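Suppose you are handed a protein chain with no further information: no name, no annotation, nothing but its sequence. What can you learn? This example shows the usual starting point.
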Amino acid sequence: MWNEFKKFAMKGNVIDLAVGVVIGTAFGKIVSSLVDNIITPLVGLLIGGIDFSKLSIPFGDAIIEYGLFIQNIVDFLIIAFSIFLFVRTLNKFKRKEEPKEVAPVVDQKEELLREIRDLLKNN
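A reasonable first move is to predict its three-dimensional structure. Written in structure tokens, the prediction is:
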């Protein structure tokens, strides 16, 4: 069982996934900081100085903080769009690195069989 686990854990996909999660988490923090510290204040200025995080409605003893919900939606959209742009840029670089398609190499045996087939058709 331990050997199976080691094989599973050392597969390239698992390690790639772990690295992706760590980098994604760090990238998420950067984008969240961008949203919280730069974009949200600018949007607040554009819409008259409203701070989303302070929007709330008292409902009995509870307080419904719908502003935080709106802020989380804005955060998600900006993070998703940022990741989209990042992946799109990576894919452009990846396409440039890929070699152009080369004609498949025909095996000599296959070529010989084709020649025999063609000779038999002609006779």
